[in-house]
Amino acid sequence: MTSNVVYAVLVSGVAYMVLGALWYSPVLFGKSWMKLIGKSEEQVKKDFKPINYLWAFIGSLIAAYGIARIMVSFGGSTIRDGMIIGLVAGICFVGAAFFINDLFESRPKGLTFINVLYHLTGFIVMGIIIGAWQ
Length: 134
What we know:
The protein is an all-alpha fold.
């Protein structure tokens, strides 16, 4: 991978984290998400561990690396290519896995929708960033 792709992966990882902060905030889906997981804002704050942000960032970098690797492997080099790869990866890998797990764990469909849509959007954003950087 070129240094451009490395920078794209880093920026994509940060963008994924920023999207998550907005997605799960009261501005977007935070209130619905807390209701669906059965926790109050106080409980979420009590359960908060700062180290989780580090692990989430590492996970974000791994996802961005995967999107970049797929793009390089298939010769993708445009924003459109990145969007398509992000969309397909989000639906086929994240969406399918969440739907299967949440089905057997009897999680609320709304929770599955919020979580899958976050990751799907994040994968598309990462694909756009990586595609633009090519």
